[in-house]
Write a structure and sequence with these properties.
Blueprint lengths: L6 E5 L4 H12 L3 E6 L2 H11 L4 E5 L5 H14 L5 E4 L14 H29 L2 E6 L12 H22 L3 E8 L24 H13 L8 E4 L7
Parallel strand pairs: 1-2, 1-4, 2-3, 4-5, 5-6, 6-7
Helix pairs in contact: 1-6, 3-4, 4-5
Bound molecules: NADP nicotinamide-adenine-dinucleotide phosphate (NAP).
Length: 238
């Protein structure tokens, strides 16, 4: 990665892990197609990194027309991205019996269907080119049940099942699919009022740890597939 510049599509680019990924890669000279809903935060990324390094797209990944339109524009104007990072996600911490149908729909639509839509739009171009990397930011909630996160777990188990199949389908086509299942990361996802981190905040992982891992993965030669990585702070167990 340090020598060869890449084009990297990041969903959920405006906060937390996605923001850290965008700033890291853009500041190292790569081009980042940054997708998220919040225009002013997308603009801040462009101001900080330069309009040639961060190309912003105001997109709700749960809206398939918006996804199709943005990715068609990326591929028409810039080409098929070298790397896709499916990172956009939402969480609610509330028992399933209390989750509204709207809440259930939103979590599945963003975390699972959003990743499927974006990947479906990017994959044919990667196949035609014969290369690409897809990184899915899943969760430890995709590896085990967590009370209060039934729908979130369903969305992340879904993502892991999707990724498991996709990795097999695409391996022979020169495309590597890796899924990362992190535990607690210090991001705005942990809202002190609505969704406080249940453990010791002093020991939670930093977004940069996920960035460093993804950078490492993208730096590796294509002879080895890192299929699924489960990682969590040592004050958690999954
Ligand atoms: N933080 C953790 O402890 C943790 C642990 C394990 C896994 N994860 C996963 O890591 C990923 C990143 O989470 P984070 O902690 O960085 O969360 P975050 O700080 O809350 O950021 C979430 C990002 O997703 C974007 N997003 C939300 N809904 C979207 C939509 N409908 N369309 C497009 N973008 C949308 C948000 O941007 P806009 O609001 O501007 O759209 C924001 O940039 C998620 O998939 C999450 O499930 C997080």
């Amino acid at each position: 990665m340090s020598v060869q510049m890449k084009s990297i599509l990041v969903t959920g680019a405006t906060r937390g892990v996605g923001e850290a990924l965008t700033l890291n890669f853009a500041k190292k000279g790569h081009v980042v197609y940054a997708l998220a809903r919040t225009r002013n935060q997308l603009n801040s990324l462009v101001e900080e990194c330069g309009s040639e390094k961060v190309i912003p797209f105001e997109v709700d990944v749960s809206k398939k027309e918006q996804v199709e339109e943005a990715i068609a524009a990326i591929q028409r104007d810039y080409g098929v991205p070298d790397v896709l990072i499916n990172n956009a996600g939402v969480v609610e911490n509330i028992s399933f019996a209390e989750q509204s149908i709207e809440m259930i729909e939103r979590i599945v639509d963003v975390n699972l269907k959003g990743a499927l839509y974006v990947t479906r739009c990017v994959v044919p171009g990667m196949i035609a080119r014969g290369s690409g990397r897809i990184i899915n930011v899943s969760s430890v909630a995709g590896t085990r049940g967590i009370p209060g996160q039934a729908t979130y777990c369903a969305s992340k188990f879904g993502m892991n099942g999707f990724a498991e199949t996709l990795a097999q389908e695409l391996l022979a086509k020169g495309i590597l699919v890796t899924t990362i299942c992190p535990g607690g990361i210090d991001t705005p996802l942990w809202d002190p009022d609505k969704n406080p981190y249940p453990g010791d905040k002093a020991r939670i992982m930093k977004p940069q740890e996920i960035v460093d891992l993804i950078e490492y993965l993208l730096d590796q030669p294509k002879g080895t597939l890192h299929k699924k990585i489960v990682m969590f702070p040592t004050n958690e167990w999954h």
